[in-house]
Please model this.
Amino acid sequence: MRRICIRSAAAGDVKTIHDLLAPFAAKSIILERNEDDIFQHLQEFLVAEYDGVTVGAVAMHVYGENLAEIRSLVVDPVYQKHGVGRLLVEGCEQWLAGLGVGQVFALTYVDGFFVRQGYEVVSKESLPHKIWTVCVHCSRFADCDEVAVQKKLSDAVTQPIPIIEVEEE
Ligand SMILES: CC(C)(COP(=O)(O)OP(=O)(O)OC[C@H]1O[C@@H](n2cnc3c(N)ncnc32)[C@H](O)[C@@H]1OP(=O)(O)O)[C@@H](O)C(=O)NCCC(=O)NCCS
Model:
């Protein structure tokens, strides 16, 4: 029986995340991210393990109380179509809902994948200007043909955020 686990990324995952992203970045399907960049945003990443093997990754970036982005979503082609991508997106939604963020969006070529998960296609112009600060580094920025998809998180399950309890004498 297969076992898929979604967890926060750790420093030891950085090379694997980079290697998962690189082939898709080379095809301009996602933005390229070097290992330094992944380290500097490590707390934004979740990874997926399939029977103990790290096969997928996703990052989420918070812009404000009512907006966050899902980015750098990839699943190793060998492990695609097994539900890993859906679980990575659900993991982001739960994590972001736990942070109190109200909506999440993605810029994507796989809008059908997101629509299956309750996202609606929105116009790119409806997104705030600040989201384009990363996109300007993309070779396709001038004639971007990605589709914007967005979902409200009010119904998402909230992932519990760990609490550290201290007892003082
Ligand atoms: C998009 C991607 C992450 C999907 O990962 P995955 O593990 O294959 O997806 P899942 O198996 O969880 O699929 C969940 C559902 O979406 C559907 N789906 C998967 N890829 C799809 C696509 N490209 N278009 C439409 N539907 C898709 C599946 O059939 C499945 O449907 P079901 O719930 O009815 O069975 C993966 O194909 C990928 O890494 N693509 C290249 C990188 C990329 O485009 N990333 C997105 C950047 S925003």
